[in-house]
Amino acid sequence: MSLCYMEGMWRDTAECRLPVTDLVIQRGVGVFDSVRIYGRRAFALTEHMKRLERSASVAGIECGDIIDRMYGIVREGVLRDDCPGAGESIVRPYITGGDENDRGRFPHPRYFVIFERAQPEKPEDYERGVALLPTSEGRLSPAAKSVNYLFGLMRNAGQSDFKECLYCPGGEITETLSSSFFLCAGGVIKTAPLGKVLDGVTRGIIIELARENGFKVEERCPLAEEIKHADEAFITGSTKEVLPVVRIGDEVIGGGHPGPISIRLRKIFRESLDRWLDT
């Protein structure tokens, strides 16, 4: 069961409908975000809402006061008795293009917010690490968190050994389908800079925590040719937190075992959660 706020009402998601005229259906015009809930408190809510607002602006969606309303919706929803996961949830706010396309501007959007039980990664994935499938393509527009994940999903179709695809346009490693990517070599953590990748909320927090704890972080795109020299790698995201990567394509990283940097950073992240939990 999932809970949804739509058109001023709280409903089961199975009871919610969008008209087929909405441009999120007809043209894939829509943006969203994912907010992790810990103990009925939203993680980095302000950062997520600001990113959602930026995404809407980049997509040409005129969201007016929708973002302001969403703060209240999230805070009310996580306290409801019927919130899935008993407060250990994922909240996904969506803003669609609505029915009107004014030459690439969308003046009358729709919005809704879905509350689902959190589905954390399997413990064995943290213990063993995961694999990524490299592809020469990149995200369509890193400035917006769009609902359109089709091309990334197509690259990973039927590849059950891989967690998700890893974008490597022009030989530069940027990000994965739904996560930020980090490569570690010689004690240096490397990750693609903003402008090349989506502004990952967890990404930014991990960079901040890493620097606070004495790690050197370079914000530049690692090259695909650097994979074979890497000591370790990891991805970050709302549900993944810090997830070790032990293989990219056929290239094994760190002897096929999670490395000390990713293990340490996940521990620091978990210990620091309260700094970013909504009050």
Describe the structure.
The protein has seven helices and 15 strands. With 279 residues, it is of the alpha+beta class. The protein folds into two domains: 3-117, D-amino Acid Aminotransferase, Chain A, domain 1; 123-276, D-amino Acid Aminotransferase, Chain A, domain 2 (Alpha-Beta Barrel). The strands form two sheets. Strands 8, 9, 10, 11, 12, 13, 14 and 15 form an eight-stranded mixed beta sheet that branches. Strands 1, 2, 3, 4, 5, 6 and 7 form a seven-stranded antiparallel beta sheet that branches. The two termini are 26 Å apart. The model has no long low-confidence stretch (mean pLDDT 95).
Low-confidence stretches: none
Global morphology: globular
Q: What is the N-to-C succession of helices and strands?
A: EEHEEEHHEEHEHEEEHEEEEH
Mean pLDDT: 95
- Our estimate of the beta-strand percent is 25-35%
Radius of gyration: 19 Å
Quick structural summary:
The chain has 279 residues and is an alpha+beta fold. It has helices spanning 23-26, 45-58, 66-79, 123-128, 150-155, 201-212, 260-271, and strands spanning 3-6, 9-12, 30-32, 35-38, 41-42, 89-96, 111-117, 130-135, 164-167, 180-185, 188-191, 216-219, 232-237, 241-248, 251-252.
